[in-house]
């Protein structure tokens, strides 16, 4: 094999080595499609932190914060503070998210409680089967275990 014939092979290996070197030293490589996933993770983490910071805030039907919330008001407020706009109601929020399986859920995803095809409640997934939510009149924003299997998951786009 002549030196000219080896050039493409050497360049391909050098490109791979460069990418591996960058990854090994903690650098980043921009890959189409992955940047938005990383951005979504950051947004979701921020929204989760905002929701958690509202622990103890009283429930009030129709309230969107900053001191009182209903369920979708808390998710709307949390994601707004994280830089994303959501519609007002739990059902509208479900229709606006990318639907995901329970096996693919991540902290910061929205958890939609449903009866049949009717979405009636929403919270923010905190991990380990728990959500931050504003439950109902007389209660406050709190971290609680998911109490039913009748839930769907959505990732804010």
> N-to-C terminal Cα separation, in Å?
51 Å
Radius of gyration: 21 Å
Overall, the morphology is globular
Low-confidence stretches: 1-35
How many strands appear in the DSSP assignment?
Answer: 6
Q: Major sheet: size, sense and barrel closure?
A: 6 strands, antiparallel
Name the helicity range: 25-40%
**Reading side by side through the largest sheet, how are the strands ordered?**
1-6-2-3-4-5
Structural class, by secondary structure, is alpha+beta
Mean pLDDT: 84
SSE diagram, text form:
Elements: H1 3-24, H2 34-53, H3 71-81, H4 90-96, E1 98-100, E2 110-115, E3 118-127, E4 130-133, E5 142-145, E6 151-155
Antiparallel strand pairs: 1-6, 2-3, 2-6, 3-4, 4-5
Helix pairs in contact: 2-3
